[in-house]
User: Fold this.
Amino acid sequence: MQNRGEHTNMAGELISEISSAKRTAWWNAKKFEFGVILCWWGAVALGALASALGVLAEAAPVKALLHVEPWMIGLMTAGATGLEVLRRKTSWRAKSNAYYGFDQKCMQLLMRIRFEMPKDLKAEHIAAISREFREADGTRGMRLKQINDGEDEPASSTTKKA
Assistant:
């Protein structure tokens, strides 16, 4: 039979494991969120610049400073459109949400370990939290797989065989 000290060590190891997973989940959530924000504001900036230059390109003060060709405006609008398509097709927001959900679950488990464990700590208490952690990690993995599978283009169902 293990003593309280051994159970405390097991709890410490579990805290370390969950804390590490929480940091990684938080970082991944922020990374995907940054991609969403970058694409959004990049598309807005390029679209606004293209619109402004399209309207003002023939104005005398602008014409004196800049020589704006129509292809330049087209390139800016194509860039804005490309960023928006990238933002929508990559499911970065859904991936970010999956990681944020896992981050929150890790925080809940850490709070339980730190503040809700009974004084007579037993292996079963630690095992229950460890099991919840593994289940949450599995759920996150399944969610990300579903998101990734949804990003793949489905085979065309309109193609007819000869």
User: Anything to note?
Assistant: The radius of gyration is 26 Å. The longest helix spans residues 4-56. Helices lie at 4-56, 60-65, 70-89, 92-115, 123-151. The CA atoms of residues 43 and 80 lie 4 Å apart.
